[in-house]
């Protein structure tokens, strides 16, 4: 409860919200300024141009005072009309929620999935793998009349710890000669995993503040392409608050048509400063290195990593499958109670069967070692048979792979 104050700091090791760096917390606490005044325009322009760099785009980025779910809705209602067919791909819980939203908005989503169940874990195979671009290409070739108006995929599926190859999806759409828009949810990928809106030919990228950008929850993003902007001029879904036109127009001068989330924009400006000063390649490499250390731990425990394809394991989080009969949520509760460590719950089809370790944002080797120690102690207390010490394996990994940007580099 809120009146319970354990000593030391809480370990927020879920895959977002991620821990907020002190520098951002201080920025959040600055006095709120006039969002129509002269100082604000400089802030507005700075964060918009910084976000273009993070998305890898020359085209407009829209910032909403909303959680990621709002930016999902914005992507759909700005570009599509009621009754439009949309090809979506089941990679996990978040892909499923976006599909459910499309249906509620009066669109007609078709939900592709890799068929089958994993014999070893009992989990659906589509929840252990990334998007199969060939399946998308095949489906689009069977749509010569171009009824399908958009392809929607999740870049980093936060419920499974699996990434998808977005360039391959674009290549499959192009190879099929199909004009569908490509929309990508990179809510938990952006600013942690390599992402290139323009280069990968994405029409709408969707992201949020509370993951790689290290902000609290509360703002979210759409990055647009010229083709998406053109589609928005004719799309028939009702839209007002989410409509890009007035926002993009006013953003040219650094302002918004409504009251933006000023204090979160202060924090965003700090975050962009941190990320862009280090350089995004260093940020991506750091996350890959942490992920490899965490995977070394899970492998040493002898537990299955939910991502079955090593080439696409998420740099942001690792899904750990618990042995049959071990309730992953009971284990999480025990670890929280004993060690003040929060781990991600299993969502949707994998509830109770797995937990998620977040390794994103404001972490370092030692905070991750502490988190892994908490998990290992919890696994032992829960009586889960372990093949070996994951903590030792991760220590060996981190010691043997010095961080290129680390203290002793
Ligand atoms: N998509 C993905 C991949 C997510 O990880 C999340 C949240 O965790 C969402 C969508 C929904 O975003 P929000 O909870 O900010 O509305």
UniProtKB/TrEMBL annotation:
Modified residues (N6-(pyridoxal phosphate)lysine): 211
Swiss-Prot/TrEMBL GO biological process terms: glycine biosynthetic process, by transamination of glyoxylate
Residue ranges of domain Aminotransferase class V in the record: 38-301
Matching Gene3D superfamilies: Aspartate Aminotransferase, domain 1, Type I PLP-dependent aspartate aminotransferase-like (Major domain)
Record-listed E.C. numbers: 2.6.1.45
Cofactor(s) demanded: pyridoxal 5'-phosphate
InterPro entries: Aminotrans_V_dom, PyrdxlP-dep_Trfase, PyrdxlP-dep_Trfase_major, PyrdxlP-dep_Trfase_small, SP_NH2Trfase/AEP_transaminase
Molecular function as annotated in GO: alanine-glyoxylate transaminase activity; L-serine-glyoxylate transaminase activity; L-serine-pyruvate transaminase activity
Pfam families associated with the record: Aminotran_5
Record keywords: Aminotransferase, Pyridoxal phosphate, Transferase
Range of residues in the leader sequence: none
Residues binding substrate: 356
Residues spanning the membrane: none
Family: Belongs to the class-V pyridoxal-phosphate-dependent aminotransferase family.
Name of the featured protein: Serine--glyoxylate aminotransferase
């Amino acid at each position: 409860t809120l009146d319970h104050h354990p000593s030391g700091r809480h370990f927020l090791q879920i895959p977002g919200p991620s821990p907020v760096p002190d520098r951002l917390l201080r920025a959040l606490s600055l006095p709120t300024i006039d969002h129509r005044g002269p100082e604000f325009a400089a802030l507005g322009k700075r964060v918009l141009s910084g976000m273009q760099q993070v998305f890898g785009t020359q085209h407009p980025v829209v910032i909403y005072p909303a959680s990621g779910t709002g930016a999902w809705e914005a992507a759909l209602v700005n570009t599509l009309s009621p009754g439009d067919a949309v090809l979506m791909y089941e990679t996990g819980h978040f892909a499923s929620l976006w599909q459910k939203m499309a249906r509620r908005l009066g669109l007609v989503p078709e939900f592709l999935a890799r068929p089958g169940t994993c014999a070893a874990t009992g989990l659906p195979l589509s929840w252990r793998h990334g998007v199969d671009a060939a399946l998308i290409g095949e489906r689009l070739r069977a749509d010569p009349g171009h009824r399908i108006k958009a392809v929607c995929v999740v870049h980093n599926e936060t419920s499974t710890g699996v990434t998808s190859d977005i360039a391959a999806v674009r290549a499959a759409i192009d190879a099929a000669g199909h004009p569908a828009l490509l929309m990508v949810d990179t809510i938990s990928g952006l600013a942690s995993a390599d992402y290139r809106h323009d280069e990968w030919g994405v029409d709408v990228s969707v992201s949020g503040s509370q993951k790689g950008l290290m902000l609290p929850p509360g703002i979210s993003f759409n990055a647009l392409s010229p083709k998406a902007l053109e589609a928005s001029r004719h799309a028939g879904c009702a839209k007002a608050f989410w409509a890009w036109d007035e926002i993009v127009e006013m953003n040219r001068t650094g302002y918004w048509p409504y009251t933006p989330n000023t204090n979160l924009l202060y924090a965003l400006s700090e975050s962009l400063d941190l990320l862009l000063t280090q350089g995004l390649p260093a940020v991506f490499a750091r996350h890959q290195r942490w992920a490899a250390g965490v995977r070394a731990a899970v492998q040493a425990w002898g537990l299955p990593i939910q991502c079955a394809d090593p080439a696409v394991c998420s740099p942001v989080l690792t899904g750990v499958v618990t042995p049959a009969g071990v309730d992953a949520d009971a284990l999480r509760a025990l670890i929280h109670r004993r060690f003040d460590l929060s781990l991600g719950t299993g969502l949707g089809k994998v509830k109770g069967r797995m937990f998620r370790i977040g390794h994103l944002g404001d972490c370092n080797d030692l905070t991750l070692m502490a988190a892994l120690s908490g998990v290992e102690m919890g696994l032992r207390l829960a009586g889960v048979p372990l093949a070996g010490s994951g903590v030792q394996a991760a220590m060996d990994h981190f010691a043997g792979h010095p961080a290129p940007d680390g203290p002793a580099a």
